[in-house]
Amino acid sequence: MANAEIVICGAGVAGVSTAYHLAVRHGLKNILLVDPYPPLSVTSSAGTEAYRNWWPGPGDTMVRFMNRSIDLLEELALASGNIFRLNRRGYAFLTANPDQISVWKESSARISALGAGPVREHPGPAAYVPFQAEGFDPALNGVDIVIDPDIILKQYPFITGKVIALLHIRRCGWLNVQRLGGWLLEQAESCGVQYKLDRLIGVDTSGGRVRSIRLESGETILTDRLVIAAGPFLKQAGSYLGLDLPVVNELHGKITLRDSGSVISTQAPFMFWSDPVSLPWTAEERLRWESDTETRWLLKEFPGGVQFRQRGHDLLALWTYDVKTREPVWPPLFDPHYAETVLRGLSAMVPGMEVYFNQKVQVDGGYYCKTRENRPLIGPLPIEGAYIIGALSGYGVMASQAAAELVAAYLTGSRLPEYAPMFGLERYQDPSYQLLLENWDAQSGQL
């Protein structure tokens, strides 16, 4: 039988990042990555590849965690010559509702106090600085609240003239996750990490500790340390250890379309429309949807949050209006009306999007594997030698480096950051944490 010092089950961005931190930063040898799919596929290949340090409480745990992860992403960008094109264009939230301004001011003050950076209002003492299209300026931090439609429309002329305010969060942007993961894997493999295309189907935990793993190919790998980084299949992987991990999956889609009409006439941040939207159907379409109980939902008022970002000449757009939990299947299946719903929703923010109505666009996406409070599971499991890095929800790319650094610290006995206990499975046994959970929104921090 083959043997490995450490086996990592899952070669998404979390698993590959863990391999990198263990092999490159800690110098560990004989590490094996196992996944039935190619590296950086499944959910890691289907997200928006974005990042942010703007997170609500309770406490400053998520802000500190994400600030650390972004620090590490910036280190990797410098080390690699920014091969994965990390930028800091920011997240821009827009509204036509005057009441939203006070909501933004209150939430910005709270999150700023958690360590996400200062709040600036415009017009004000300093001019609004839009953004840097490529690369990242470390000085861009905190948030700008712009309450002047002329400033907004001058910078973003494609936005609806109904806009009255902009909330521009600065330590945010996106990257190319395939290039990031490819570079991390290359560095890890140069330090001896091996990858095996196979499926975990069992773990020998006799005596209360990891002893070996069984693969679908029939191979057995002797190991005494196993890291579960299985993404949406986390619960299944945990069952091989006799554990019922407290996670669920939500399916989230996105659409990709070529902006052939140059509707987005300038480079832009990641843009969000904060107001509720009723979709602009024709009278004929409304009659059609109304006549069928399966499509009447298309006539309802949808929550705010429709969003897009640029990727070259393409636009990536999504809308988190369906948060039902479900069992993961791959490839996933999406509602046939999802694409048109997103396109029509976007037109509330960008009226020019109507030129793309009823056009066929690409739909893909992945699963948000989540705990009930939407915070990750990172650290040792009750079986000796077993560890977890998962429940990274829709923030796997942005959290990947701090999460991998943390699980690697557990494996190597290194110093743990202060936020480490807040992500361990044992937190659910803490009475004070149980009190927090009573009033914790399952969508906390989700955009």
Number of strands: 23
Radius of gyration: 22 Å
Strand content: 15-25%
The CATH superfamily label of the largest domain reads D-Amino Acid Oxidase, subunit A, domain 2
CATH structural fold name of the largest domain? D-Amino Acid Oxidase, Chain A, domain 2
Basic shape: globular
Domain count: the total is 2
Strand order of the largest sheet: 6-7-8-5-16-19-20-15-21
- Helix % is 25-40%
Distance between the termini: 46 Å
Q: Which runs of at least 5 residues are low in confidence (pLDDT < 50)?
A: none
What is the top-level CATH class of the largest domain? Alpha Beta
Secondary-structure-derived class: alpha/beta
Largest sheet: 9 strands, mixed
Specify the CATH architecture of the largest domain.
Answer: 2-Layer Sandwich
What average pLDDT do the residues reach?
A: 97
* Number of DSSP helical runs: 10
Please render the helix and strand layout as text.
Elements: E1 2-3, E2 6-9, H1 13-25, E3 31-35, E4 50-52, H2 61-79, E5 91-95, H3 99-116, E6 119-122, E7 143-146, H4 149-155, E8 165-169, E9 172-174, H5 177-190, E10 194-197, E11 200-204, E12 212-215, E13 220-222, E14 226-228, H6 234-239, E15 248-258, E16 270-273, E17 277-278, H7 283-290, E18 301-302, E19 306-311, E20 314-318, H8 338-346, E21 362-370, E22 377-380, E23 386-390, H9 396-412, H10 431-437
Parallel strand pairs: 1-13, 2-3, 2-14, 3-10, 5-16, 6-7, 14-23
Antiparallel strand pairs: 4-9, 5-8, 7-8, 11-12, 12-13, 15-20, 15-21, 16-19, 17-18, 19-20, 22-23
Helix pairs in contact: 1-5, 1-9, 2-3, 2-9
